[in-house]
Structure formats: C-alpha cells, structure tokens
Design a protein that fits this description.
This protein is about 10% helix and about 50% strand. The protein contains one helix and eight strands. Strand 6 and strand 7 form a beta hairpin. The longest helix has 17 residues.
C-alpha cells in the first residue's frame, strides 16, 4: 500500500505525458469539498470547515481524464489546512468527446479514484501531514469539452486516511469545469 501511495503522483504525470494528442483537452475546475466524520468520530481535517477547490482537469482518452486540485481551508482559520488532490476519472455512460471531435454524451456519470495529500495545523507552527486514498462517484455530469463547460453534481466519495487507518465519507456538492479550448475548437 505504501508503494501505491508514493507512486500515484508519478503515474498521473506519466499518463499526462503519453496521452494521445487527439484526446487532449484542458479545463479549469472550481468546486468545494465537505468532509464527514468516520465511525470513530475523526475527520480528515482537524475540525469541520469550508474547503473550496481550484484545479485542472485533463482529457487523456475519450473516456478517461486526470485531474489535480488544491483544496485549502477557507473557514474557520483560513489556510490552516491545505490538501492536494489528484485523480483519474472514467466516464460511465459514454464518450466525453467523439473520435471525430464532435460532442460526446451530454449527461454522463463519472467514477474517480485518487489520492489526497494534506498539510494540517499550518498556522500553529506545528504542522502534520496526511495521505489518503479515495473513490468518488458523480451521478450527474452535465456538459462536455465540446460545449466548453461541464457541471459535476452530487459527487459522493469514500476516503481512507492511510496514516490514521480511518475511513470516512466526503461530498462534492457541485464542481464546474471550464474548458480552455482554442477558438478553432469552440463550436
């Protein structure tokens, strides 16, 4: 398990480097994370709070994408916790983009697997760090790269904190992807 946690960021970078040129698309993503307590009452963070996310999503194939985000604590104690999230996602209902370059399926569902690296208690001067693996299901993804925008709604995930050996749930209520397409690709 340690080797998987260590090698996932490297694997993601390798996938991005060797991705086929025709399937590449890039989106700026904005959303939010809500963490729930584990059965033992622990949170992936030191306390509840508001966690926006800002990141990039990159199309690897017509069905697969990779993403990376920064997830800082906004309140209370802004920037006391910061997460880096990396994931690989798969479209369940159809292609994100057609092979011909046309629009893929407009209503889709996604499954993501990834890693969440955290830095906690940054303001106290005694920081600690966490590593977690997660699996997330997004039942509603409206839009695709062809239309320049996608809204991902009601994503529910399970997160396993590798260091604490705790498992809990998280929610991404909504995330919006704004695709950064060249003017020749915008339809």
């Amino acid at each position: 398990m340690k080797h998987l946690v260590r090698s996932l960021p490297l694997l993601l970078l390798l996938l991005l480097a060797v991705a086929p040129t025709k399937a590449q698309d890039l989106a700026f993503s904005v959303g939010g994370w809500s963490f729930f307590r584990s059965a033992k009452g622990a949170l992936p963070t030191e306390s509840p709070g508001t966690f926006p996310s800002f990141g990039l999503t990159y199309g690897i194939t017509r069905y697969m994408e990779a993403g990376v985000s920064i997830v800082p604590r906004l309140s209370p104690d802004a920037m006391d916790d910061i997460f880096i999230e990396e994931h690989i996602g798969f479209s369940l209902f159809g292609e994100r983009v057609k092979k011909s370059g046309g629009p893929g399926i407009y209503l889709n569902a996604l499954v993501d697997a990834g890693i969440l690296l955290g830095a906690h208690n940054l303001l106290s001067g005694a920081p600690n760090y966490s590593r977690a693996l997660f699996l997330r299901v997004t039942p509603f993804a409206l839009g695709n790269p062809f239309y320049g925008r996608r809204d991902r709604m009601f994503s529910l995930g399970i997160i396993h904190d590798y260091d604490k050996a705790e498992t809990s749930l998280f929610l991404n209520l909504i995330a919006v992807d704004f695709y950064l397409a060249s003017p020749t690709k915008v339809h």
